[in-house]
Amino acid sequence: MPLRPIRGRLAAAALLAATGLVASGTTSAGAAPTAAAPDIPVASVKAHLAQFQSIATANGGNRAHGRPGYKASLDYVKAKLDAAGFTTSVKQFTSGGRTGYNLIADWPGGDTNQVVMAGAHLDSVTAGPGINDNGSGSAAVLETALAVSRAQLKPAKHLRFGWWGAEELGMVGSRNYVNSLATGDRSRISGYLNFDMIGSPNPGYFVYDDDPALEKVFQDYFTGLNIPTEIETEGDGRSDHAPFKNAGIPVGGLFSGADYTKTAAQAQKWGGTAGKRFDACYHASCDTASNINDAALDHNSDAIAYALWELAAQ
Prior knowledge:
Elements: H1 42-58, H2 68-83, E1 87-95, E2 98-106, E3 111-121, H3 131-151, E4 157-164, H4 172-180, H5 183-187, E5 189-195, E6 206-207, H6 212-224, E7 230-231, H7 241-246, E8 251-255, H8 264-270, H9 294-312
Parallel strand pairs: 3-4, 3-5, 5-8, 6-7
Antiparallel strand pairs: 1-2, 2-4, 6-8
Helix pairs in contact: 1-2, 1-3, 3-9, 6-9
């Protein structure tokens, strides 16, 4: 997540019941019941993080835009998706005189006039390997996509996944992708879910409130775990949901905190240390594989799967 001024949120105008995004778990007569979302193994998510760490270590200590560590990270993710049966494409762009890349992966099937999309930025800052920011979101989205393949999911809506380049320079990759879409293609995206920093070592549980239907899906999941959530404000307008939102696409997502300080009230309900930043290694060289809270990564990864299974169902 880049250091950028926080911008105000736009209130969603559509009523929750009118969005058509949320599956209730029940179906009309004669329709197949909604398949239950799988548990996402946190060990598998962490295995991807270990790969990102190894890639950074072998490439100057980072995975930043225009650097070899970024392209190696993208190649790793793409190979996993290709082997799992996704249709992948790499979109190239230029920023700061360096070549950047977005990776898009489509799961076969589903109504392509109703696309549910999940994404995360894959680049780090130049200062470090970026394992929480944002290896955590990238790895969780990857493992959820692989879970779609393992389940051979047949969603009613079409599923698409994205890994963005140059987010740390100001959402350059995701903006390039959204701007490249024809107006009709933008309107076919029913919702975009963004996951940026979901394994912070002193975590909070924050849910984007930009769209009420998407917000409710995540709230329902965490309510089922008896984990209280708060509205996400720290990253407002500072991650890859912003270009989608600015284009009129409903957005949602999760966040576990960056350089804001955890309050005593937050520590009481979530654990951790009051008076300490959610991620003391934010944008620093110490954002390594040891800079992850396993419980937060586990819960947030499972929440991604829950949301995608719900939103892609009839």
